[in-house]
Amino acid sequence: QVQLVESGGGLVQAGGSLRLSCAASGSIGSINTWGWYRQAPGKQREFLAAVLSNGGTNHVDSVKGRFTISRDNAKNTVYLQMNSLKPEDTGVYYCNARRWVATIPYDYWGQGTQVTVSS
Question: What HEC string does the chain produce?
Answer without folding.
Answer: CEEEEEECCEEEECCCCEEEEEEEEECHHHCCEEEEEEECCCCCCEEEEEEECCCCEEECHHHCCCEEEEEECCCCEEEEEECCCCHHHCEEEEEEEEEEECCEEEEEECCCEEEEEEC
